[in-house]
Amino acid sequence: YGANNLEQRVRAHLAGSRAPCLVLPLFAQRTGSTTGTLRAAARTGATAAPARVTLVQLRADAPDYVAALAAALREALASASSAPEHLLVSFHGVPLSHERRDGGIYLRDCRRTFDALLAASRWPADRATLCFQSRFGPGRWLTPATEPALVDLARRGVRRVALIAPGFLTEGLETLEELDLRAAAAFEGAGGEHLIRVPALEDHRQLVTALEKAVVEALNR
Hints:
Layout: H1 6-16, E1 21-23, H2 32-45, E2 53-55, H3 63-78, E3 86-92, H4 96-101, H5 105-121, E4 128-133, H6 146-155, E5 160-164, H7 173-189, E6 194-197, H8 205-219
Parallel strand pairs: 1-2, 3-4, 3-5, 5-6
């Protein structure tokens, strides 16, 4: 992995500055393997001065975050050659054992984002599916899985699908390879014609506003 180890960075900051340290995970949907791991690393790095470290959390249904997703969806649909018949909202998958261990918080957060996005986009719930990608290794994972869901839609005669991945705030292998290449190929191979993949938010103005508000809220606690 990269050189900017969170635990080391927190420890170095506290040793060299009296300013508070804020840790902002770029995951709106909480789970032990993402936000939990980051929080644990931050706490380990802050053992010398835990009171000076503030952990920030972007809420799964934060209005500006949801508005950014809805805007990105509208922009993608506006540039598409034809309107999609169905919307897939894809999140990173987690093993069921992890989800149970964490008390089901990840699925609840994914559902909160999903429901808020449909409401903000005025997208009908009967033409939308919440699904999960990036499964690897043995064991049971959250379902439905994204690729099989696309194949099933194509086999049922759905030819045009919009696909958005709210949990990935930046582009990476999970979007550029797994969705743009593998998922699109699976959909087209099953008879689908057009997969409209909504780009990651990255530096979208409303996402930045959502992150800013999360930081300010944490500082004002």
